[in-house]
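pinging the channel bc i need a second pair of eyes. not urgent but kinda urgent?? the chain im working w is below, pasted from the shared doc
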Amino acid sequence: MARTPYIRHLRQRDQDRVRHSQRLLAWLSAQATRLSTSVANVFARLKAGATATEIEEIDGSYPTNTVLPAITGTTVSGETLTATNGTWTGDPAPTYTHQWLRNGAPISGATDTTYDLRSAGCGCGYKDQRPRDRHQYPRQRRPPPVRRPLPSPQRNGELT
């Protein structure tokens, strides 16, 4: 009989934990549905240090480009090429990394937004690794031309 209050306490504690877990799962599910993502992604944000208020303030819109990224400068020895990220709206805001390429291969240590051309690399194709124009996307195949049968020759309105 002396242990009954303690057992009641343990049962109450377990019931409280279950209710808390149910409320947490319901909140995670609601946020995941609102953000069109999985419960695991919302939980991962919490584990990474985001607060519930920060997650609730996310508007759920995907990043949208309003000003295109670009590379400016001329590919002449001694000149500087500059990559701009463009302008993006939405949440979460994108993060940027840069890697300059020479003839398709990464240039060691060239990870800044600018790249100074050296005479040794002059005449090579330089570009920032992120796709910037339609030429860097896969080509779409055109459908084969439609072949129609030739009309039958006619003489005086009669088929021959």
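so The longest helix spans residues 4-35. and The two ends are 112 Å apart (CA to CA). — does that match what u expected or am i reading it wrong
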